[in-house]
Amino acid sequence: MLVLTRKLGESIAIDDHIKIVVVQIKGKQVRLGIKAPKETKIHREEVYLAIQEQNKEAVSATPDTMKDMSKAIKG
Predict the structure, then answer these.
(1) Do the Cβ atoms of 21 and 32 come closer than 8 Å?
(2) pLDDT, position 39
(3) Burial of 19 (0-12, 13-18, 19+ CB in 10 A)
(4) What pLDDT, on a 0 to 100 scale, did the predictor assign at position 17?
(5) CA–CA gap between residue 42 and residue 35 (Å, rounded)
(6) Model confidence pLDDT, tens digit, residues 56-69
(7) Sheet holding 29-35, edge to edge
(8) Exposed site from 2, 14, 22, 64, fewest CB < 10 Å?
(9) Domain range summary for the chain, segments of one domain joined by +
(10) Three-state secondary structure of the chain
(11) What is the pLDDT of residues 9-22, one digit of tens each?
């Protein structure tokens, strides 16, 4: 893990297309701004982990589960 120290208003560049800027420091919290191409997916870690878990569940779904889901969607 790379650990960097940045002050308010300073930034970190990742490759040529992503820039992370320290926008605000308030107590123990740091607010970051992220500039990246629209196609770059950016999530908080807890959201990312939830998405990964849902993807795993979808992959392991049985054919019967898929049929039930299809019926539910169709109404």
Answers:
(1) yes
(2) 96
(3) middle
(4) 96
(5) 10
(6) 888 887 777 777 77
(7) 11-14, 18-26, 29-35
(8) 2
(9) 1-38, 43-75
(10) CCCCCCCCCCEEEECCCEEEEEEEEECCEEEEEEECCCCCCCCCHHHHHHHHHHHHHHHCCCHHHHHHHHHHHHC
(11) 999 999 999 999 99
